[in-house]
Amino acid sequence: MALRLLVRGGSSASVIRSGGFRQLYGRPGPLHLGAGLRHSPISFPNIVHLPPTFESGLSLRHTFATMATPPKTLERQFTPILGTGKYGLVSYPTNKNETFPDETPELVLIFGWMEARLPHIQKYTELYNKVYPGATQMVVRSYGDFLYTNSEQFFKEMAPLAKMLQEYQGKRVLVHVFSNGGCLMLTYLVEASRSLTAPEAPMEPLQASAIIFDSCPGTGDVRSGARAFTAGMKNPIAKYAFATLVIFVITTVRWFRIITGKGGDHFNAMRKQLLDPVILPHGVVPRTYIYSDSDAIIPYKAVESHAEGSKHLGLKIEVEKFPDTPHVNHIKGEGNLARYLDIIQKTWKQASS
Question: DSSP readout, 301-341?
């Protein structure tokens, strides 16, 4: 029986099911590529769907409105990537005839936070356009409603994204991941890429020359998860009721995984995936962790412990802690925008040096 539950937590949606992501760490993953499956139709028997009423009434579409003020004018316009539904967007340089230094990124790959509105994501795409105007930009969006989406359809929509990324193998790619929602979409995309390769081909990590973790990765703390889900709610009664429901669901799934021998904390499983060289490259690829001691969604200690894990593996890491900045909005406040841009450029300089 392949039981699959999708449960959101933090600003993320986590995948919990029997089976595992490459059967490593006893951990969950979006798609189990077992023997004979890589070139066969994807099937997910006995999928457990939450009722539609879970989405209606108490909306999950919180956008953390204070996170990033949308830019008034846009230099870069995005178009949907064909076949990806609402998940994939791409923007090409506005002046293709202009030449840019060879040491700049050819692709900036952004994994958005859960339920992030495009205008808020574009706050960051515009920043990247200022420092790297010659780079193609690709945005992978993260939604909570794939709780209710057919699994086969979801991974079908990931395939065109994976195929487009294959064009950048061996090229200069800067990856920027926002929150747990972005982390999860990253792991899903890597797994979708596996379905495009021959069964005997070695597993390749996501193409990345440098990686920026922004407000992530978090842990499975249920209280943080409840705060994430209820951040956009104004009604205190609805907020309390829904927070209670979130805590119940996360706790139930955790015990289900313990009883079935799959481990208890699926968020820690995700954290291990991000340290796995078949998910993200090791070697000289630099990693920068941007976070805050005032983040109400992702505790700063969770980010620091993951950075320590990367350091223990011998990876090149930098940690950049901002004081008093909110979740995925560390550009807020006097002097923070300049510092944020400097961090991006320093991270890329490490990759190109």
Answer: HHHHHHHHHHHHTT--EEEEEESS--TT-TT-STTHHHHHH
What's the predicted TM-score (pTM) here?
Answer: 0.77
pLDDT of residue 6: 41
Is there a contact between 161 and 31 (Cβ–Cβ < 8 Å)? no
The domain containing residue 336 runs over which residues?
4-352
Count each helix (H run) and each strand (E run) in the chain, helices first: 8, 10
Paired tokens of 281: 């490259």
In degrees rounded to 5, what are phi and psi of residue 344? Answer: -60, -45
The amino acid that residue 44 corresponds to is F
Supply the CATH number for residue 76's domain: 3.40.50.1820
d(C-alpha 157, C-alpha 155), whole Å: 5
Peptide bond into 217 cis (omega under 30): yes
The domain total for the chain is: 1
In the Cβ-directed half-sphere of 56, how many Cα atoms lie within 13 Å?
3
Q: Is the pLDDT of residue 22 over 50?
A: no
